[in-house]
């Protein structure tokens, strides 16, 4: 439905995006995830039609909407946009924001007044603002303002909803609640959603597909579960969830660490490209801690942080410092305790030295 082909964007000499290839299906919820400055907003602006790519092209519904020579403007693209900063007009009420958007969009411009009022009511009900239709932005909380900007974005029933870090200005609790609301709006509208975030938790929780970006390039495109369990690159492994990387060499399915590391391991969760690089990613929740002095990696607990459902340990071992997350229902350890680390495995495993 949306096809981004070999898209490059330069600002003067600076290359903000390079050779981006992404396909977004109709109705799909896609998260663009990456650190600040990696080019997320630039990609979203190209999708919206605020500017042309320097090279490559963007297709929507089979026709080219953006290339070096061509630019279909935002109001002709059948999109809705939500910004981090809400971008509301101080002199317009909640209902007027939605109405403005309906008048502006090509596919709702000619709605009869009666239908327009009905649509405004529907949309405000969908985002839970029906009681606040006559309020001005200065009379709304942060969460309510973001709901207005959501209502405005979905009012014209766009095929594509573009959201640039829509939750980052909200406090933690509200962010969690709005995650569900956006998912529910996505389900009800059937629009494709392109959701930009630098928050890995948000991307993992909400998206059908995650595009991980770094320095203007795509690192990996896959489902949340594949991104987490089979990262393709060291960047993805370390950016998405906490992950330590062990260097060594692979012999078939056997991993031989460079440094002494006595662990039980399995290779499920290791991508072919990381294998080629001689890297084994270890997630904090993969470690098992015990007092047992037999086989395993010996270490000393430096810190133990209680987190409610987990305990986060920092363990100093001979070969480095490891992060270990255990359930509160497992054995507890104190700073100074000597512990043995082994890797949890769920199916067949080998024991190596
Ligand atoms: P993100 O949204 O991932 O934080 P942006 O797409 O905003 O990243 O920016 C990507 C890079 O392009 C950054 O290094 C930024 O400084 C640069 N950049 C963004 N907009 C402009 C501009 N209008 N002119 C020059 N450089 C820009
Ligand atoms: Mg940005």
UniProtKB/TrEMBL annotation:
Q: Which Pfam families match?
A: ABC_tran (PF00005), TOBE_2 (PF08402)
UniProt cross-references to Gene3D superfamilies, sorted A to Z: 2.40.50.100, Nucleic acid-binding proteins, P-loop containing nucleotide triphosphate hydrolases
> Where in this chain does the entry annotate a coiled-coil region?
none
For this UniProt record, give its keywords in alphabetical order, as a comma-separated list.
Answer: ATP-binding, Nucleotide-binding, Transport
Domain of life of the organism in this record?
A: Bacteria
Q: Return the SMART domains for the record.
A: AAA
Q: Which GO terms describe its molecular function?
A: ATP binding
What the entry lists under SUPFAM superfamilies is as follows: MOP-like, P-loop containing nucleoside triphosphate hydrolases
Determine if DNA damage is one of this entry's keywords: no
The residues covered by the ABC transporter domain are: 2-240
Query: Record's PANTHER family?
Result: SPERMIDINE/PUTRESCINE IMPORT ATP-BINDING PROTEIN POTA, SPERMIDINE_PUTRESCINE IMPORT ATP-BINDING PROTEIN POTA
This protein is called: ABC transporter ATP-binding protein
Species: Virgibacillus sediminis
């Amino acid at each position: 439905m949306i096809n981004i082909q070999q898209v490059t964007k330069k600002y003067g000499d600076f290359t903000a995006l390079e050779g981006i290839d992404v396909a977004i299906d109709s109705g799909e919820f896609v998260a663009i995830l990456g650190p600040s400055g990696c080019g997320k907003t630039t990609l979203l602006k190209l999708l919206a039609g605020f500017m042309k790519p320097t090279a490559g092209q963007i297709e929507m519904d089979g026709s080219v909407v953006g290339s070096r020579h061509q630019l279909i403007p935002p109001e002709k693209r059948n999109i809705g946009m939500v910004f981090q900063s809400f971008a509301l007009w101080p002199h317009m009420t909640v209902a007027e924001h939605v109405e403005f958007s309906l008048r502006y969009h090509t596919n709702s411009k000619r709605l009869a007044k009666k239908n327009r009022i009905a649509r405004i009511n529907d949309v405000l009900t969908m985002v839970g603002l029906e009681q606040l239709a006559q309020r001005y932005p200065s009379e709304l909380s942060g969460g309510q303002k973001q709901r207005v900007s959501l209502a405005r974005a979905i009012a014209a029933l766009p095929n594509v909803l573009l959201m640039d870090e829509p939750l980052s200005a909200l406090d933690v609790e509200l962010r969690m609640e709005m995650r569900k609301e956006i998912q529910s709006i996505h389900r009800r509208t059937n629009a494709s959603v392109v959701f930009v975030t630098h928050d890995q938790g948000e991307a993992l929780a909400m998206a059908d597909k995650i595009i991980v970006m770094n320095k203007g390039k795509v690192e990996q495109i896959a489902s949340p579960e594949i991104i987490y369990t089979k990262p393709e690159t060291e960047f993805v492994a370390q950016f998405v969830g906490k992950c330590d990387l062990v260097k060594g060499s692979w012999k078939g399915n056997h991993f031989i660490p460079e440094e002494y590391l006595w662990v039980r391991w399995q290779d499920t969760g290791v991508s072919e490209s990381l294998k080629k690089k001689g890297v084994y990613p270890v997630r904090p929740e993969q470690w098992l801690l015990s007092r047992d002095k037999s086989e395993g990696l010996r270490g000393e607990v430096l810190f133990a942080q209680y987190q409610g459902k987990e305990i986060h340990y920092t363990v100093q071992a001979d070969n480095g410092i490891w992060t270990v997350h255990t359930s509160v229902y497992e054995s507890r350890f104190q700073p100074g305790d000597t512990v043995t680390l082994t890797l949890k495995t769920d199916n067949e495993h080998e024991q190596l030295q």
